[in-house]
Write a structure and sequence with these properties.
The structure is a single chain. This protein is α/β, with parallel strands linked by helices. α3 runs parallel beside α5 and α5 packs parallel to α6. The relative contact order is 0.18. It holds the Pfam family ABC_tran.
Amino acid sequence: MLKIKNLHASVEGKKILKGVNLEINAGEVHAVMGPNGSGKSTLASVIAGKEDFEVNQGTIEYKGEELDDMSPEERAHKGIFLSFQYPVEIPGVSVTNFMKTAINESRKARGQEDMPASEMLKLIREKSELLDIDRKFLSRSINDGFSGGEKKRNEIFQMAMMEPTLSILDETDSGLDIDALRIVANGVNKLRSDDRATIVITHYQRLLEYIVPDFVHVILDGKIVKSGGKDLALKLEERGYDWLKEEIAI
């Protein structure tokens, strides 16, 4: 589904990614870990097409198609979803109206007509029940006055509604207490399927107790320096990153 080869990227002239290689197949969950400033969020932003970041070298292929010249909107319409570390507040736009617009814009990009209102309401009902979301929540302005947990839960609701084939969760656990973390992780797990893939970006192993990854990758200084199974995350929790830095002489 996703093939990244020798990816180098910079922001404002500063080189952040320095040769990332990564392959992800449908049905897989990959965790990307690393200390602050290692390049985790930059990788997420570059895959999603954020315009502040410049790809200097290498390629990103999604379903066999190169993403280089695609805008963030085009990537989203093709099924790439990015959950933000710090979701934006949009006063005056309800969660429901936002989702209607987003879904119909993606349908338009695929040459389809708007989703009928009855079908949209049925989808909203199904997904809100799946994620245990109160219907009153859906009439509120997006993230306006939301707690940290509510903001992240809203991101997972958007993911459920859009049904992307590749979801990137950028530090979804940031700022969450244990109850909110469980709710968000439960939503992600309910959306796992054989035809979708997920990248979970996190500092901490605790999220991976709830969203169990198939693969764990460690980024240091803009490169993936080690990959393994969930045991690697446990080792990082116990020993930190210094032993890896010594191993690869960073």
